[in-house]
Amino acid sequence: MENFLNKLSVVLTTLWVGSLWSMLMVTSVLFHKIPSAYIAGAIAEDMFAYINYFGIITALFLIFIGFKKNGIKILKKSYFWIIFMMLVVIMINYFGINPFLEALKIEALSKEVMESVFSERYRTWHGIASAAYLFECFLGIMLVLRVRLI
Description:
Blueprint: H1 2-33, H2 37-70, H3 78-107, H4 119-146
């Protein structure tokens, strides 16, 4: 059973990190192929939501398996801190910055947010969220390289 959980950890981690990186390409294609930035953004937002939920579930599973295998000694392992940092980035982005960006869209009313008076604030917070997401992607690479240690 432990061998199965180890292999499942590797598979889930690979799927999670692969989906993070693939979203970078998918969002680029969405915004180039769909004429409305609003529609492309709405589709990308839904896709990010699914990836975030999958990431939360995977991170909690990996932490659980790590605690089961190593006990409290997991706190000395680098992969635990990588998973923890990725989980924190998800929580900040999805439950902190994303609702703020949504509020800015609502405040823009009938205009697209980039055409409203909120465009500069939106651009700044979107840039912060994007940088955090890219940081999560690079943490994911480090996690894939260490996941077999769980």
